[in-house]
Each structure stands twice: as C-alpha cells, then as structure tokens.
C-alpha cells in the first residue's frame, strides 16, 4: 500500500531567484506544486543526483557564496 502523502513539515526557505525559477519550472513540468516538488526531490535525493557532479557543483557554489552575498 502506498504511503499517504501528507505535508507534515513546513519551514521558511530562502533561495535565489534562479533556484526558485528552476523549482517552479520543474514543478510545472511534473504537474506538482512547489512543496510537492521539493518533497519529491528530497525523498528521492540519492536517485536524482549524480554524486560526482553534485560534489563539483557544491564546491563551485561554496567558492562563490561569499561573493554572491555582497
């Protein structure tokens, strides 16, 4: 029997305009709202990410983070 889909956790999240646009596009293409899309991505995180590419992108993001905050 499939798990019942309940959104039990709510939190404020800050994200960049580019990140939010990508989330909205993904949600629209998948026929989900933004909360459902985030739940899908995090519930399936290991299967929807390439760990090597993720590590590279994370290092790149972290190296640019302080400059982007200015």
Supply database-style keywords.
single chain, mainly alpha, globular
Walk me through what this model shows.
By secondary structure, this protein is mainly alpha-helical. It has one domain. The protein is built from four helices and no strands. The chain has helices at 17-30, 34-43, 45-48, 51-69. Helix 1 packs across helix 2 (34-43).
Summarize the structure.
This protein has helices at 17-30, 34-43, 45-48, 51-69. By secondary structure, it is mainly α.
Mean pLDDT: 90
User: Segments where pLDDT lies below 50 for 5+ residues?
Assistant: none
Name the structural class.
mainly alpha
The helical percent reads: 55-70%
Radius of gyration: 15 Å
Q: Determine the oligomeric state from the structure.
A: single chain
Whole-Å distance between the termini?
A: 49 Å
Shape category: globular
Q: Tell me the number of helical segments per DSSP (H or I, 4 or more residues long).
A: 4
Strand % is under 5%
Q: Give the strand tally.
A: 0
N-to-C series of helices and strands:
HHHH
User: Sheet bearing the most strands, described?
Assistant: none
Q: How many domains is the backbone divided into?
A: 1
